[in-house]
Structure formats: structure tokens, C-alpha cells
Amino acid sequence: MQIRNVTVAVAPFSSGTWLDESRVSTPLSRYPEFAERRSSWRGPGSGLVWVLIETDDPEVFGVGQSRGGVVTAALIEGHFRGLLLGRDALDLETRVDQLHLAALPYAAGGISSMALSACELALWDLAARASGVSLAHLLGGSDRPLRHYLTCPEPQLLDEVDPDLIATSATVKVPMAYGPAAGREGLLANLARLDETRDRVPAHVPLSVDCFMSWDLDYATAFLREASGHHLGWIEEPLLPDDLAGYAELRRSQPVAVAGGEHLFGLTEAQRFLQADCADVIQVDVTWCGGLGTARAVAELAGARGVTFAPHGAAMHPWAVALLSSLGGTTLTEVLIGLGGAVDYPRASTGPGVGIDPASVGLG
Prior knowledge:
By secondary structure, this protein is of the alpha/beta class. It has 2 domains: 3-132, Enolase-like, domain 1; 148-336, Enolase-like C-terminal domain (TIM Barrel, Alpha-Beta Barrel). It has helices at residues 18-21, 69-84, 92-102, 110-131, 135-138, 163-167, 183-198, 217-226, 244-253, 267-275, 292-304, 318-326, and strands at 3-11, 48-55, 61-66, 148-151, 172-175, 207-210, 232-236, 257-260, 281-282, 308-309, 333-336. The strands form 2 sheets. The protein has an 8-stranded parallel sheet with strand order 10-9-8-7-6-5-4-11, covered by helices on one side. The longest helix has 22 residues, at 110-131. The chain starts with a strand and ends in a 28-residue tail after the last strand.
């Protein structure tokens, strides 16, 4: 079965949601002109990238997704597409290895990893469709409900969520609005947001905080000291992803769990992060870390070290949900609130593949 076409489409990641409009502490929010709107600093590399791989059998195709917008799309269309056309669609190992090797001349990291992820996920979807099964089934999983946690930017959004979904959540994560540049006033505002959220979350469910790479060790330490009575589950991405020493020090010195890894690209970066004892929870994104193969390898490494595997934004990514359904050990599925549509227990699609209609994502 040969690959006869590779189509790429770019779409906005989100529009008009809290992911665009709310104040969330980011690496650029130290500058006032980028502080009030989360999306104010985004460029052409922020869009979703969809990939459709078609074969000489019109019933067998695969859909993949990543980020990186027109930058990622250019790499796939200008280079990776030529490496896929005319090749055996079901020899997934060879296809992925060739893409990995072809990406070596580019700078290691985000864009090359994103392009690879989109193609790899499409090939996995294609393989499941060729077998007439769901991707979860192909990976050895099922459609059972998965252990989950909720991400909620505005406390009032919880009023629209099934109370049982909240009560069974491993934690409710709150994106922090302020970082070190906002001083003590901002720190107190972050604590107030936790208080508002706690009013809507049962006492047995811990709260966690997401800092989006925008804090430093001193600020994170001061915040955790002030928040000691808030029953925190974890502090997420408090530091830049390459600050391994800072992560390890925070984890050693604080009683609260540390989460991170969303912005790690490739297995080597994830290995370094884990080997440096940087986190209790690792959160690589299946759609940009290198795909399912990389994510599964990270999950195995995490399990061997007693680290929870909780892929970033997993409930939005059917490939990630399929993988999580097949894993043992301690895993979590992130469910984001406030993006429109119903919020429910995450479970894998029953297929075929990951169940995405190409036309519904601009690939038809």
C-alpha cells in the first residue's frame, strides 16, 4: 500500500477563548504590552497544522496534527512530503526513522519535532484504519474512561461542569495570571484566584497551578510558601524548560509536586529532564514531542522512575487518549474547560483510527 498524497492545512489554534483573550502569565508578560492577552505575542507559528496522508486505497488514509502554523507546514510540504510519496504506507518504523534522520540538518527542537509529530500521528491513524480498528485497539487499549484532571482558567466555569467530574478529578489546575514582574500585588491576586476556585472544588481535590515557563525559582518558592494552606497538588512549568538545576532544586526544597515537560521536544530532552530529577509529573505533548513513539518511550522512562505521565492537553488529542488507554502505571488525561462543547470523562474513540473526518478539519 503506497502513499499517493500528503496534504497540509493550517488553522487557528483557538479563537475567542480564554486561550486567546485572558490574562495568563507567559514568558513575555513581564512586558506590559504583552501582559493582558495571552495571545498578544503569538506569531505565525501558533496555528494548528493538520496532515492528511492518503494511499492508493481510497478507504485507507491517516490524519495527524501538530502546531507551528505556516512554519511547520513549510517543512512538511517542502521536505517531508517528498520523503513519503510513493513509499510503503504501512512500514511505519521506516517512514518515521527516515523523517527523523532527514530532520537532523535542522535545529533540534520545536518546528522539526512538530513536523515529525504530525506525520507520525497520521501514519499511526492510517495503520489503524488499514487494520479496520481504532487506534486505541491497535495500541492494545480500550475505550474505558481514563483518570483525568481539569484545567480551569476562570472559577465560574466550574459551575457548568458535572460535579462528579470535578469530584473525581485528580486535581483542578489553575493558570496563573501574574508572574514576578507584577510583584506582591500579583502574587496575592494569584492566591485570590485559588481561593475562588477552592470555593467550587471539593476539599479532597487538590488545586494545582500552571506558570507557563514564566516564573523564577525565588518567585516560585515565595508563592509556595504563601500558598501552603491551599492543598496544592503540583506547580507546573514554573521555570524555563532548560533550567534543569532550578527544577531539581525546587523539587528538592518544596513539599509540593513539580510538573513540567510540555515544551520538551524529542526523547533526548525528555530523558535529560527525567534523569535530572526535575519533575514528579511529566507532560510532553504527543502532537509536538515527536509523536506516539516518542511519547510512549517517555511514558516508559517515567514509569521506571515513579513519575506520573500526563501529556499536555491530552483530551484534545485523540492520538494521546488512545495511547493513554493502552498504558499501565500512573497516567493522567488533561481536560480543558472553557473551550466550547461538552466536558466529559475522557475515553478513546472506538474508531476506525482516531475517528477524525478529514473534511471536518479542512483536509477534505
